[in-house]
Design goal:
Distance between the termini: 31 Å
Helix content: 25-40%
CATH superfamily of the largest domain: Response regulator
CATH topology of the largest domain: Rossmann fold
Bound molecules: iron/sulfur cluster
Mean pLDDT: 96
Shape: globular
Strand content: 5-15%
Structural class: alpha/beta
CATH class of the largest domain: Alpha Beta
Strand order of the largest sheet: 2-1-3-4
Number of helices: 8
CATH architecture of the largest domain: 3-Layer(aba) Sandwich
Number of domains: 3
Length: 208
C-alpha cells in the first residue's frame, strides 16, 4: 500500500530515493520500469514532453485555459471536444469562443443530450430535485460516444458532476483534460473547502 499523501520525506523529489517510507513507490522497480517503457510510446512521449514544456513556459503566469490552448497546439490537437454541464452553459459559450479565436475547432456536447428521463436509471421522485422522475438525467456516456463519433483529437471537461465525470472519462477515446470541476457550494473551487478544513470547514473532520 502506498502512502505518498502522508510522506514528509519526499525523497523522490530530490532523487534521494532512500529518503522514503518503507512502502515507497520508488522501490517498485517493476512498475517504474514499465512506466518508463510506456513513456517511450509515441503518443505518451508527445503528451509528457509537451506537458513539461507548457508547465515551464507558463509557470505562474499562464492560466489553465491558456495552458490548455498551448498544450493542444503543441500536441497538434485541432479538433477539441468540449464536454460541459448545463449549469455552465454561459461559460461553455465563452470557452467555445476563446478556442475558436485561437483557431481550434470545437465540438461541444451538453450533459443533458438525449433528453433521457431519470426514471430510466430507476430513480424515483424522491431522488430528484424537482420531485419529478421525468426530469432529464445527465448523459455522460452519450457525451463521450458523440465526441468519439466526431473523432475529436482532445477533450476538455468543464464542470461535470462527481460521477458523471467518471463515466465520461471511462468512455472518451481521445486524451482528456479538465478545465473546471463542479462544486456548487464553492463556485467550482473545491480546494476552498480543503484550505478551510482547519477553520470554517472543519466539519470535514468533525462531521458538524
Ligand atoms: S514516492 Fe516515496 S519518497 Fe516520494 S512521496 Fe511517495 S513515499 Fe515519499
Amino acid at each position: 500500500m502506498y502512502n505518498c499523501a502522508i510522506c514528509t520525506l519526499k525523497g523522490c523529489t530530490r532523487r534521494a530515493l532512500d529518503e522514503s517510507l518503507p512502502d515507497c513507490p520508488n522501490k517498485n522497480d517493476a512498475i517504474q520500469t514499465k512506466a518508463k517503457a510506456l513513456y517511450q510510446e509515441e503518443e505518451n512521449k508527445k503528451i509528457a514532453y509537451n506537458a513539461s514544456l507548457v508547465e515551464v513556459q507558463g509557470y505562474g503566469t499562464k492560466t489553465r485555459i491558456e495552458e490548455i490552448i498551448d498544450f493542444a497546439k503543441k500536441c497538434g490537437y485541432q479538433r477539441i471536444g468540449l464536454v460541459f454541464c448545463k449549469g455552465l452553459s454561459k461559460e461553455a459559450k465563452v470557452v467555445h469562443n476563446i478556442f475558436t479565436y485561437h483557431e481550434l475547432t470545437v465540438v461541444s456536447v451538453l450533459c443533458k443530450n438525449g433528453g433521457i428521463e431519470k426514471k430510466f436509471l430507476d430513480l424515483t421522485e424522491e431522488d430528484t430535485l424537482s420531485g419529478d422522475c421525468n426530469e432529464v438525467m445527465c448523459n455522460p456516456i452519450g457525451q463521450a460516444l458523440l465526441l468519439n463519433e466526431q473523432k475529436t483529437d482532445f477533450n476538455v471537461i468543464m464542470g461535470l458532476c462527481v460521477g458523471h465525470d467518471t463515466l465520461v472519462m471511462k468512455y472518451l477515446e481521445a486524451p482528456i483534460t479538465t478545465l473546471a470541476v463542479k462544486d456548487r457550494v464553492t463556485g467550482h473551487n473545491p480546494l476552498a473547502a480543503i484550505y478551510l478544513s482547519e477553520s470554517y470547514y472543519k466539519k470535514l473532520f468533525t462531521g458538524v
